[in-house]
Design brief:
The protein has 5 helices and 8 strands. It is of the alpha+beta class. The chain has one domain: Pnp Oxidase, Chain A (Roll), CATH 2.30.110.10. Strands 1, 2, 3, 4, 5, 6, 7 and 8 form an 8-stranded antiparallel β-sheet that branches. The chain is globular, with a radius of gyration of 16 Å.
Length: 183
């Protein structure tokens, strides 16, 4: 049976910190827009307070999450236990995109490891924190993080990476504004 929490307590924080993967879900305002669900890995998630979280948005194949969050701020983060006791935890929030040059960006960035290819930091103020059983989630054994994305991002120098973002990440599949064009 699921439970709703007022805040991320120590037990939930320990659960979050033990997970190797999380998923983010967003959607544009328009009813025919594309719903997006993205898996995230590496050491890219931080609990900033009892009702505030953030994660690194590292270069990838699309810019849907950034564009959707910029349009309407809706974000759900989901963690699943793939080992140990069954559990699913969903964090529902009003999010914002913090990009290079934005107020507070450098302070937020300092909370994470250095990774190549960081486009932004997504910060979410949580209005609902809820778990559910997760009884249907299979067991998986964690082996290691894949390094392809980091190697790919590291293959660009800083200016090439910024140009890649300007060229390929300026708009979502729905035509919404993605990364800042003036980076």
């Amino acid at each position: 049976m699921g439970k709703v929490y007022e805040e991320i307590n120590d037990r939930l924080a320990a659960f979050i910190e033990a997970q190797h993967i999380f998923f983010v879900a967003t959607a544009p305002e328009r009813p025919n827009g594309l719903v997006n669900v993205s898996p995230k890995g590496h050491d890219s998630f931080r609990i900033l307070g009892p009702r505030r979280v953030a994660y690194l948005d590292i270069t990838g194949s699309g810019v849907e999450t950034i564009a959707h969050v910029k349009e309407n701020g809706r974000l759900t983060v989901m963690f699943c236990a793939f080992d140990g006791p069954a559990k699913i935890l969903r964090l529902y929030g009003n999010a914002r995109v913090c990009e290079r040059g934005d107020e507070g960006y450098d302070e937020l960035l300092a909370k994470f490891p250095e990774y190549p290819g960081i486009r932004s930091i997504i910060v979410s103020d949580l209005f609902r924190i809820a778990d559910s059983c997760g009884w249907s989630i299979p067991f998986y054994d964690y082996r290691e993080e894949r390094q392809q994305l980091l190697r790919y991002a590291a293959s660009f120098d800083e200016e090439q990476l910024l140009q890649k973002h300007r060229d390929n990440c300026s708009h979502s599949l729905d035509g919404l504004v993605g990364v800042k064009p003036d980076l």
